[in-house]
Fold this protein.
Amino acid sequence: MSAILDLKGLEVSFDGFKAVSGLDLSVGEGELLCLLGANGAGKSTTLDLICGKTLPTAGTIRFRDRDITEVHEFRRARLGIGRKFQVPTVFRELTVEQNLEVARSEYPGVLSTLRRLGVRRCDRLEEVLELVGLTSKRRAQASELSHGETQWLEIAMLVMQDSQLILMDEPTAGMTIAETSRTCELFNRLRGRHTLVVVEHDMSFVREIAERITVMHQGQVLAEGGVTDIENNEAVREAYLGSRGIAHA
Amino acid sequence: MSQKWLLPLLGYVAFSVAILSVPAMVGDNVFLLNKYARYLALALPAVALALCWGQAGILNLGQGFSFGIGAYAIAMHLKLVASASNPGGLPDFMGWNNVGALPWFWEPFHSLGFAVLAGIGVPVLLASLLGWFMFRARIAGVFVAIITLAMLVVGNLLVVDQQRYTGGLNGMTDLAWLNVLGLQIDPYSRAFYYLTAGSLIAVLMAGFVLVRSKFGLILQAIRGNPERVRYFGYDVARYQSVAFATSAGVAGIGGMLYAMVLEFASPTFMAVPLSLAFVIWCAVGGRQSLLAAAIGAVVVNAIQGSLSEAFLDTAQLLVGGIFVLVVLFLPRGLGGLVEDTATRLHGAGARLRRGREAVEKSVDLPVKRGEVAK
């Protein structure tokens, strides 16, 4: 498996506090990687670094063999990096269909959007609506959706964007158990087609979807491996509140 | 989708027909026609504001800057035409200010084409520049309002200060009539009214398409959450700059028509009160729709016009009161009120239909609707 994303020696500090220090991480093409770690371990900051929201003070980021360390956010998106935020951020005043149209950004230039209609029907749109179960709500305003539906809409937007690499920050935050299990199904349908990096706290969800887990601690990689390796790892247990282990975290 | 297009389009067409049929109704009362043409000219900066504020969320408090540049560009041309018989073709105010020869930057304004191009192009260019710097630096919200306001004040000071070239506080008066292909267009005439109405309709129709294009959708998305739009690969700063510059061009057209309808250009066009008035008209009409903003401008001006005839200065107070009431009770303006009513009626109709269908399904009559009559 060739690496699609390669982080080397990344460092970021906010007012002297090192949120990420000396981070090395590599993600293979088509892989689903889970990032675990206690609050403040630097997980979200890592995603911010990859999508360009935060610039590193040291180190390099390579995406598909290209150095993107200094590349502007919207250009990284055009290269194929999509991001889902922790707080669901959809366009609340637009309809579900319109949200997906914004996400469909194969031609993002001003001149090409001027020549196109506001919402264009196509098979892909139907497919994606079906995938997240929002077909019947296509004309509803995003502000009318439930919390779970809003999360799915944002995931649907990332699928619509068709990014090779999708970064997800706590996709199941605030979801009911039923909603979480539907999200699991969704992820299983995404894997393979997209490379996913998922930050998640919900261990049962991680067990369900993860192939490989990377545990972060104080801005560095603490451990890497499969689900059982990580659950039995002493250092991870230490880092996660004493010895009860992350199974209960 | 077709429904979403159809209803608003009907509104635009109805408005166009209405303003085009005004001359037939007022007959030969050219004073009234001139007054209505003035209202229509003032609708343009309100439409411009609806475009950048209502769609893209950029509150431009200095719309008068572009409006004023448009007004001065056409006034320079008309002033030169009016001064043709003066010694050296020099405008009167330059003589009073001891200017010996026509300044170089006045020369091209002998051409009407150049003046019109400048009236639109200069605001577009300046707005692009300012927009580029502002939006690259991710300046947003109230800071944009402050910067645009500051730009307006600078423009106003410059015009007043450079009396030798601009006529200073007096502005440019005694302008000639517009002369298009040998045809003199009296601002107190049907022809001029149609010119103004036609310009407004053209801008509204172009705006109608723009708002419903994907470009318009991206602007609305940027208004909601610029950061999110950026992570889908759109160059947000460029979109904002284009919206800001387009809006400036529309305001420039409005300024040109306004200077012609009043037959003078004055620094008050670039004064703060007028630019704030644009915001009020836009808000009263409803900033989310270009048509609503245009209607807002016409309605507020008409009210202000008739009240000031009856109450003189008290009229300002009454107009202010109307604004306060609209902001308090109709935050989306008159356009929002119409939209909500339409949605409610549509919703009630749909509920009624669903109810009837449910009843028909549950009853299961052996005879179907319409069969009894046969």
